[in-house]
Amino acid sequence: MKGKRLPRPRDPIQLGKLIVDIATGQVQEPEESAPEKRARGAGKKGGPARAASLTPEQRSEIARVAASARWKKG
Questions:
Q1: In terms of pLDDT, which residue wins out, 36 or 59?
Q2: Cα-flanking dihedrals φ and ψ of residue 3, to 5°?
Q3: Does pLDDT of 1 surpass 90?
Q4: pLDDT for residue 67
């Protein structure tokens, strides 16, 4: 797996030695890569999928109910 780090020892002295070894180039640590991003719209789930399936009237009603619930709490 690309981007996997070397395991870090729990012992502080061994950890210090590993850090020095990495800094001096005696041990090569793999480059950390950025996490892969999905393309937009791939696998819509949750709120976006629900919003896409609702009609404007249904969304308006849901928003109205949510607003009244917020005002009740105050």
A1: 59
A2: 90, 5
A3: no
A4: 93
